[in-house]
Amino acid sequence: INKKVLKLALRRAFSERIAEDSVIIADSISIDSGKTKDAAAFLKKMGAGSNVLIIPSKLSDKTAIAFRNLPKVEIADYKSVNTYAILLRKKILFDKDSAQNFITRI
């Protein structure tokens, strides 16, 4: 598949998530305690549910540890997000910087 088709598929998948109101933009994504319980509470507070793709601009070790034990939660860099990852998860959670960087990428 050529690059134009891949980029078009990524745009299409992202626009579907926007149309479904499944894109959430937070000020920052950070769990300082590193506890999974706090990560689950953060997702619930943001209205993301349990099936979510998290795209932070900067990821600390404690934040990664907090989210890695949650099932159906995937953490990805804005540079490496692909169409499959967007379609697999029901919600997408960005922070402000990663949202701007991802939009300029596509």
- Please, how many helices? 5
**Radius of gyration, whole Å:** 13 Å
Note the run of SSEs as H and E.
HEHEHEHEH
Helix content: 40-55%
Main sheet strand line-up: 1-4-2-3
Beta strand %: 15-25%
Count of distinct strands: 4
The backbone outline, from C-alpha atoms, is globular
If you had to describe this structure to a student in words, what would you say it looks like?
- This protein is an alpha/beta fold and 106 residues long.
- It has helices at 3-19, 36-46, 61-68, 83-88, 96-105, and strands spanning 23-26, 52-55, 73-75, 91-95.
- Strands 1-4-2-3 form a four-stranded parallel β-sheet.
- Strand 2, helix 3 (61-68) and strand 3 form a beta-alpha-beta unit.
- Helix 2 packs across helix 3 (61-68).
- The longest helix has 17 residues, at 3-19.
- The radius of gyration is 13 Å and the shape is globular.
Put the structure in a nutshell.
The chain has helices spanning 3-19, 36-46, 61-68, 83-88, 96-105, and strands spanning 23-26, 52-55, 73-75, 91-95. The protein contains five helices and four strands.
Helices and strands, with pairings:
Elements: H1 3-19, E1 23-26, H2 36-46, E2 52-55, H3 61-68, E3 73-75, H4 83-88, E4 91-95, H5 96-105
Parallel strand pairs: 1-4, 2-3, 2-4
